[in-house]
Design a protein that fits this description.
The chain has helices at residues 3-14, 18-27, 39-53, 58-70, 74-86. By secondary structure, the protein is mostly helical. The radius of gyration is 14 Å and the shape is globular.
Length: 96
């Protein structure tokens, strides 16, 4: 597993709150997989880890995003939602 992915997951787990997790389950009609981290905290974590990856090639960042998104965890998808718009100026036809 990539060290960045592992660090993100560690930070998300450290910030998990069972009350937030239970609340998320009530918010969605279908069940969701989540750690139980508030959105503002997810974006703070995403920003911290963005500093580690921002100078990587776009393809590498997309690979990390794909791995995070494939996990099915709501907060990991939130990190992707924070990172992808940061790359918008470098998008090319066929990137998405």
């Amino acid at each position: 597993m990539n060290s960045v992915i592992q660090a993100i997951r560690t930070d998300l787990k450290k910030n998990a709150d069972p009350v937030v997790r239970k609340s998320a389950q009530h918010f969605f009609k279908e069940g969701v997989s989540c750690y139980g981290v508030k959105t503002a905290t997810v974006y703070r974590i995403a920003g911290l880890h963005w500093k580690r990856v921002k100078d990587l090639p776009k393809k590498s960042i997309f690979g990390l995003c794909g791995e995070l998104f494939a996990s099915g965890m709501q907060e990991e998808a939130g990190v992707v939602c924070d990172w992808v718009p940061r790359l918008a100026d470098s998008f090319e036809r066929g990137d998405l």
